[in-house]
Recover the amino acids of this structure.
Protein backbone atom coordinates (compact mmCIF):
# COMPACT_ATOMS: atom_id res chain seq x y z
CA UNK A 1 0.00 0.00 0.00
CA UNK A 2 1.09 3.55 -0.61
CA UNK A 3 1.51 6.03 2.22
CA UNK A 4 -1.71 7.80 1.18
CA UNK A 5 -3.65 4.51 1.05
CA UNK A 6 -2.49 3.67 4.59
CA UNK A 7 -3.47 7.11 5.88
CA UNK A 8 -6.85 6.86 4.15
CA UNK A 9 -7.44 3.37 5.56
CA UNK A 10 -6.66 4.46 9.12
CA UNK A 11 -8.77 7.61 8.84
CA UNK A 12 -11.74 5.78 7.29
CA UNK A 13 -11.61 3.02 9.90
CA UNK A 14 -11.45 5.57 12.73
CA UNK A 15 -14.37 7.54 11.33
CA UNK A 16 -16.47 4.38 10.94
CA UNK A 17 -15.66 3.30 14.51
CA UNK A 18 -16.65 6.74 15.85
CA UNK A 19 -19.95 6.67 13.98
CA UNK A 20 -20.61 3.13 15.23
CA UNK A 21 -19.39 3.43 18.84
CA UNK A 22 -19.39 7.17 19.68
CA UNK A 23 -16.10 6.83 21.62
CA UNK A 24 -13.62 9.25 20.03
CA UNK A 25 -10.54 8.07 21.89
CA UNK A 26 -11.01 4.38 21.21
CA UNK A 27 -12.07 5.06 17.61
CA UNK A 28 -8.78 6.80 16.93
CA UNK A 29 -6.76 3.77 18.03
CA UNK A 30 -9.10 1.36 16.21
CA UNK A 31 -8.39 3.36 13.07
CA UNK A 32 -4.65 3.21 13.60
CA UNK A 33 -4.83 -0.52 14.27
CA UNK A 34 -6.03 -0.99 10.69
CA UNK A 35 -2.35 -0.72 9.74
CA UNK A 36 -0.16 -0.20 12.81
CA UNK A 37 0.53 -2.58 15.67
CA UNK A 38 -1.76 -1.12 18.33
CA UNK A 39 -2.35 -3.53 21.25
CA UNK A 40 -5.95 -4.45 22.01
CA UNK A 41 -5.36 -3.70 25.69
CA UNK A 42 -4.39 -0.13 24.83
CA UNK A 43 -7.56 0.26 22.75
CA UNK A 44 -9.66 -1.10 25.61
CA UNK A 45 -8.02 1.21 28.15
CA UNK A 46 -8.32 4.25 25.86
CA UNK A 47 -12.10 4.36 26.17
CA UNK A 48 -11.61 6.24 29.44
CA UNK A 49 -10.08 9.15 27.55
CA UNK A 50 -13.22 10.10 25.63
CA UNK A 51 -15.08 13.30 26.40
CA UNK A 52 -11.92 15.19 27.20
CA UNK A 53 -10.11 12.59 29.32
CA UNK A 54 -12.62 10.74 31.44
CA UNK A 55 -15.59 12.91 30.42
CA UNK A 56 -13.88 15.81 32.24
CA UNK A 57 -13.91 18.15 29.21
CA UNK A 58 -10.13 18.35 29.16
CA UNK A 59 -7.79 17.21 26.40
CA UNK A 60 -9.52 15.85 23.31
CA UNK A 61 -9.71 12.05 23.20
CA UNK A 62 -8.26 11.91 19.70
CA UNK A 63 -5.39 14.11 20.83
CA UNK A 64 -4.58 12.00 23.89
CA UNK A 65 -4.77 8.78 21.90
CA UNK A 66 -2.52 10.26 19.25
CA UNK A 67 -0.03 10.88 22.03
CA UNK A 68 -0.45 7.27 23.21
CA UNK A 69 0.17 5.88 19.71
CA UNK A 70 3.28 8.00 19.27
CA UNK A 71 4.48 7.07 22.76
CA UNK A 72 3.99 3.41 21.96
CA UNK A 73 6.27 3.75 18.96
CA UNK A 74 8.89 6.20 20.24
CA UNK A 75 9.09 6.10 24.04
CA UNK A 76 11.97 4.24 25.62
CA UNK A 77 11.52 2.09 28.68
CA UNK A 78 12.19 3.66 32.08
CA UNK A 79 15.28 1.47 32.38
CA UNK A 80 16.64 2.67 29.03
CA UNK A 81 16.03 6.30 30.01
CA UNK A 82 17.76 5.82 33.35
CA UNK A 83 20.81 4.53 31.50
CA UNK A 84 20.62 7.26 28.86
CA UNK A 85 18.53 10.28 29.92
CA UNK A 86 18.98 11.87 26.50
CA UNK A 87 16.51 9.32 25.10
CA UNK A 88 13.67 11.36 26.59
CA UNK A 89 14.65 14.23 24.29
CA UNK A 90 13.63 12.12 21.28
CA UNK A 91 10.30 11.33 22.93
CA UNK A 92 9.61 14.92 23.87
CA UNK A 93 10.40 16.11 20.34
CA UNK A 94 7.79 13.69 18.97
CA UNK A 95 5.02 14.56 21.40
CA UNK A 96 5.61 18.29 21.00
CA UNK A 97 5.67 17.93 17.21
CA UNK A 98 2.30 16.18 17.34
CA UNK A 99 0.97 18.82 19.75
CA UNK A 100 2.03 21.55 17.32
CA UNK A 101 0.52 19.79 14.30
CA UNK A 102 -2.72 19.19 16.20
CA UNK A 103 -2.84 22.85 17.27
CA UNK A 104 -2.23 23.95 13.67
CA UNK A 105 -5.07 21.72 12.46
CA UNK A 106 -7.61 22.41 15.22
CA UNK A 107 -6.38 25.49 17.05
CA UNK A 108 -6.70 23.74 20.41
CA UNK A 109 -6.21 20.39 22.14
CA UNK A 110 -9.25 20.82 24.40
CA UNK A 111 -12.50 18.96 23.82
CA UNK A 112 -14.84 21.89 24.63
CA UNK A 113 -12.95 24.20 22.29
CA UNK A 114 -13.26 21.65 19.48
CA UNK A 115 -16.97 21.45 20.32
CA UNK A 116 -17.19 25.18 19.59
CA UNK A 117 -15.83 24.53 16.10
CA UNK A 118 -18.07 21.54 15.45
CA UNK A 119 -21.27 22.51 17.27
CA UNK A 120 -20.98 26.27 17.75
CA UNK A 121 -20.65 26.02 21.53
CA UNK A 122 -18.69 24.20 24.21
CA UNK A 123 -20.17 21.32 26.19
CA UNK A 124 -18.75 20.70 29.64
CA UNK A 125 -19.53 17.10 30.54
CA UNK A 126 -19.20 17.69 34.27
CA UNK A 127 -22.23 19.97 34.03
CA UNK A 128 -25.28 17.68 33.83
CA UNK A 129 -27.24 20.16 31.71
CA UNK A 130 -24.40 20.34 29.16
CA UNK A 131 -23.98 16.58 29.02
CA UNK A 132 -27.72 16.15 28.51
CA UNK A 133 -27.80 18.81 25.79
CA UNK A 134 -24.82 17.26 24.00
CA UNK A 135 -26.33 13.79 23.90
CA UNK A 136 -29.60 15.22 22.55
CA UNK A 137 -27.73 16.24 19.40
CA UNK A 138 -28.78 13.28 17.28
CA UNK A 139 -25.82 13.44 14.91
CA UNK A 140 -23.10 14.34 17.44
CA UNK A 141 -21.27 11.07 16.82
CA UNK A 142 -21.21 11.73 13.08
CA UNK A 143 -20.03 15.31 13.48
CA UNK A 144 -17.32 14.24 15.94
CA UNK A 145 -16.28 11.54 13.46
CA UNK A 146 -14.91 14.23 11.17
CA UNK A 147 -12.59 15.40 13.97
CA UNK A 148 -11.54 11.82 14.70
CA UNK A 149 -10.84 11.25 11.00
CA UNK A 150 -8.72 14.41 10.66
CA UNK A 151 -6.74 13.68 13.83
CA UNK A 152 -6.15 10.06 12.82
CA UNK A 153 -4.70 11.30 9.53
CA UNK A 154 -2.21 13.48 11.42
CA UNK A 155 -1.13 10.60 13.64
CA UNK A 156 -0.80 8.11 10.78
CA UNK A 157 1.27 10.62 8.80
CA UNK A 158 3.67 11.02 11.72
CA UNK A 159 3.97 7.29 12.30
CA UNK A 160 4.73 6.73 8.62
CA UNK A 161 7.28 9.52 8.27
CA UNK A 162 9.92 7.73 10.28
CA UNK A 163 9.21 4.43 8.51
CA UNK A 164 10.16 6.16 5.25
CA UNK A 165 13.32 7.58 6.79
CA UNK A 166 14.35 4.16 8.10
CA UNK A 167 13.70 2.42 4.76
Amino acid sequence: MTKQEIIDLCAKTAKEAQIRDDVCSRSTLIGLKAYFDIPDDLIRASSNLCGGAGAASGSCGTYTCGQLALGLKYNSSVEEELENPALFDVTSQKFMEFRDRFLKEFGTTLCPEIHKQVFGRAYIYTKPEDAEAYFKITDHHIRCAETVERATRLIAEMLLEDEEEQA
User: Anything to note?
Assistant: The longest helix spans residues 140-166. Residues 3-162 form one domain. The chain has nine helices and no strands.
